Structure prediction request, 1202 residues.
Amino acid sequence: MAETPHRVLRPEPDRVSLILRYLRAYRQDFLLGFLCLVATNGLTLCIPWLLKDAIDALGRGGPPRRVAYDALAILVTAAILAAIRIRSRLHILGASRRIVYDIRNELYAHLLTLPASFYARRRTGEIMSRAVNDLMLIRSLFGPGMLSVMNVALMYSAALPLMAKIDPGLTLVAVLPYPLLLAGVFRVSRRIHQRSNAAQEQLAELSNKAQETLSGINMVKAFVREEGEAGLFGGLSREYRRSSLLLARSRGLILTLMRGLGGVSTLAALWLGGRHVIAGTLTKGGLVAFLSYLALLADPTVMMGWVLGVFQRGLGAIRRLEEMQAIRSDLPGDRVQGAGPVLRGSIAFRGLDFSYPGGGDETRPVLSGVTLEIPAGSTVGLVGRVGSGKSTLVQLVAAVYPVPDGTVLIDGHDLNVIPTGHLRAHVAVVPQETFLFSKTIAENIALGAPAATRQRIEEAAQVAQITRDLPDLPRGLDTLVGERGVTLSGGQRQRVALARALLLDPRILILDDALSSIDADTEEAILAGLRGIMRQRTTLLVSHRVSTVLAADRIVVLEDGRVAESGTAVELLARNGPFARMHRQQQIEKELEAL
Amino acid sequence: MSQPAQHDEEVLGKAYDARLVRRMLGDIAPESRLIVLSVGLMFVVMGAQLLQPFLFKLLIDDPILRGDRRGVTLLALSYVATLVVELAARFGQLYSMELTGQNVILRLRHRVFRHLVSLDSSFFDRYAVGRLMTRVTTDIESLADLFTSGVVSLLGDSVKLLAIVGILLWLDWRLACVAFALTPVLFLLSAVLRGRIRQAYRDVRRRIARINAYLQESISGMLLVQLFRREKVSTKEFDVINSDHRDAELSSVVYESGFSAIIELVGNVAIALMLWYGGGQILKSALTLGTLVAFLEYTSRFFGPIRDLSGFYAVLQAAMASLERIFALLDERPAITSPTTASRPARSYGRIEFDGVRFAYGSGDEVLHGISLRVESGERVAIVGATGSGKTTLIKLLVRLYDVSAGAIRIDGTDIRMLPLSYLRRQVGVVLQDHFLFTGSIASNIAFGAPTLPRERIEDAARAVHASDFIRRLPGDFSAAVRERGGNFSVGQKQLLSFARALAYDPAILVLDEATSSVDTETELLIQGALGRLLAGRTSLVIAHRLSTIVGADRILVMHHGRIVEAGTHRALLQERGIYHRLYQLQFGLEAPGSGPATLASPEVAS
Prediction:
């Protein structure tokens, strides 16, 4: 993630404070969870104590009642323990799920405020990874992580005094290996983390190779490279195997280490404790109970190493999320407060220079010195080659990218002082690339006006000539589109997008090459229907098809980001410039098509 | 993969399928020695582990009772011995099993990949690369899981259970029966709760998938969401699926918490029962205290394996589903293969003949309607035509990426379907429009089709197509890294590199689909010069977009709607005033012939 000038970072985000913030927000859950844990730990420790009592009684040869009572007490304790343990987990793990839900909602709300320049630079996968993978890590931090931290602390503070009460010397000797254990676990678990990252990277490289070979399969076959590619892939597979085995070695090591050190504790207790029993300073039951306590401590201690890793990764995830949350929109209009002026729809470009933000030094200007006056209610056709800047120009009217102050004016107001939301309420865009959501056609049409009546949706569909396709769609306007619904043709999709814009009833209507996939006859019908609508509002008509713009009040030809010529169709054809050339070529194309 | 591929990722079937397992055994067999070693070591681990509580019993019953300090030390030392043996064996066991798993999946992964690259282009038209990738990655990984955790722990758990059962029975069969009394309860509870947990996890997965899908869609359509001021509605929609997911998570928490607490409860109940019954026996002197202590120790190790065993089912189920998909892929057969009786012609002349060739992609509409053409040895033929007239298809048919539907293609008089595939593709060099470069170095890309080519020849090839100037300027020149798809090179550079690649391949026939992308004038001149070098001395079929290429051809064929409609020289065709004439006007405007480096792409004819 390279630093970019327009990105504003908050002062070094304090991650610990974020943890505290959520702990505070869910303090009731965490507190109750903690209290439950106190109880469960206490009860867990009761059981060996009862066991010790029973065994000591047995060692003395009675009374039998005592043993039976102890057994009963264990039974009751266990039942209560189970009930409280469930509660403790419900509180803490439940809180972690709610925290993740909160953060995910916050993140999404934030994503909705980020501008196009942000999405142009970030891959979808990267953003998704924040919202999915990083949140998993945060969930582990607040859930199992918190749970374990509390457990370990409680376990130690309860077990150690009890053990000391049985035999202080023995306790000291038995617990000595634990700090060592903890340090070892922490070290190895860091290495495991590194190695597991390395293995993941190897796996990623492996799948990149597969992706590349399969995408370029025709070249692979044409150059008889099947064996060679399989060989390279085999090499990467072996690399991956090697790093997986390294990882396995560390994992094996940590298991062995922990079990070994735990064993050393037991050994110390066994050997020294045995001698203490013989010396009479320790009862047999005391030794058994002591060994049980040791066993109880072994697991939480091992857990601690794991918990450290969970916190480390969780904090990393929090940092990445904080970074994303710190990014702010680069649109000046997003920072303007207030209602905004009444807009009628005249547009003026005054010496507009534009290049895409955040592209570094190599960015060439997309638009240079564009000056145009577009009166409210007029229709302007924009034509030019791919990359001539026509799409960019119309997108700027909808405040998709930031523009220099005073270069774009709507009804005489600088675009940068109009609140973006207010502006967009008056501008409707049908973009070049049609994007439909996995919803019904009607819902897609009502995208910008969720409260629109059915009648208005149908009217918009009528003008966009969707109605003629309805008989072919299983549920008419209520047909689901997208991945889980029907696949619409390019032309059908464009018409839905058009209806969507019409329903907004905008002051400024922008059709960004929006009819390109629609056949000439349907286009004719659409334009005829649109004529009445276009008369009442400013329309910007971008097209690669000369026929689409012929009827416009004015046609503007862009070349390399500059206005090359402009005028009515009749004037431009008479000039015999770029527009006339395009017109001729498209005539020939039409002839060829007919042959 | 013969069934419709839409939903095959989510299908979970049986946990055990004998047919699949039998096929898998072939891949496992070479590792049998490692497996035997691993199982052997596992027994050692278990032996050592089971010995330890027994040592406790001895310690308490014997030396302590007699006040024998040396006995205590001796037993402590034997404990050390069992510990060391256990640890060493455990490490060895884990590692050897990991090794087994890694070896098996290495072999299988390689096999799947080799099989994939042997499949036809039409197969790749049908299946998205992403889905195929899953076979080589995720599916294979889930088999690895089976090995590294599943199989051995299954075996280990069963053996451990049996051993504990045996020892308990041997120690005191009546007390053992008391301990076992709770096993059926545990099994039942475990199975029921696991079922619930699985269901809950499935819900969680389904709902997180919905979140993912919604996010993905929102991010892709973010501009629209914003332009149409849908932020509020969208926030609400997201909140609905987000809270759905949270609720599913919460109910999974309930079952999970219940599960672990109940397992613990059962263990404690068992302890109480044994204490109650065993205590009575001790007081009747039918049992020693040490035996009871050992019993309590063993029982605590008894419930873990039962819990794990019930968890193994899910791993097995996932692995079987993956195996099913992998084998289905391995069962795909390529339709385009070398004929069994093919022999390599002694030498090639580079004569091409299309004879009434018809072709349709899959079950689609016919795109070539009876193409007949001959290219003589050493002749240079240019093909021109509008987009979609079927030009590129000709190239794909010539190297048998697809087979003709009717008619025949012959090289030096032999039907290409009668030639060994590798021979055919060795004779025909292909330069496709998108100049696909592969990750690696400049040198490895030039020597793509001739990996054994010495460095000087690679450099010669680069020099001949004027690529060496820019290569020399790169850090590490010929060793400079090429990133994915050549993303770090300009369009012009990629063209020159793909020319160098074709030249290094040195085929008798060269088929070339000229790029339509426009480049700056200087690069354009470089490319024209390079093209001359590339085509010199071989039969060539060029889908031409450059005026210079067209004019320099011996013959021009005009394709229109899947047919060859005109043929001749540039001058003759222009005079015909037919389609060629119109195409010429279209591509190069109305300017006089030969005026500058115009290309098809320069005027805007396509969107």
Summary: The two ends of chain A are 54 Å apart (CA to CA).
